[in-house]
Amino acid sequence: MATSGGKANLDEKLVVLFIAGCAMLTYPLLAIADVDALIGHVPVLWIWIFGVWSSVVLSLAVLLEGG
């Protein structure tokens, strides 16, 4: 899969981003944020999920815009 083409490099980055995003939303890491605490009246778990989602979307935007 390691070729010198730009599309192959982008494909590899997208696969890594997908795997990282899925890993951040699986049980072992999700359990870290599953506590009985609030940040600004919002549960920590919701902040974790929204933070991971927004990070994946921002990373996708940067990758697909050629950054």
Summarize the structure.
This protein has about 70 residues and is mainly α. It is built from 3 helices and 2 strands.
**Gyration radius from CA atoms, angstroms:** 15 Å
Number of helices: 3
Strand-and-helix sequence, N→C? HHEEH
The fraction of residues in strands falls at: 5-15%
- What characterizes the major β-sheet? 2 strands, antiparallel
Judged by helices, strands and strand pairing, the structural class is mainly alpha
* Distance between the ends: 21 Å
Helix amount: over 70%
Shape: elongated
How many strands in all? 2
Mean pLDDT: 91
State the low-pLDDT regions, or none.
Answer: none
Topology:
Elements: H1 6-24, H2 27-33, E1 38-39, E2 42-43, H3 44-64
Antiparallel strand pairs: 1-2
Give keywords:
single chain; 67 residues; mainly alpha; two-stranded antiparallel ribbon; 3 helices; 2 strands; 70% helix; 6% strand
Question: Would you mind describing this structure in some detail?
Answer:
With 67 residues, the chain is mainly alpha-helical. It has a domain of 43 residues. Helices cover 70% and strands 6% of the residues. Strands 1-2 form a two-stranded antiparallel sheet. Helix 1 packs antiparallel against helix 3. The longest helix has 21 residues. The chain is elongated. The relative contact order is 0.13. The model has no long low-confidence stretch (mean pLDDT 91).
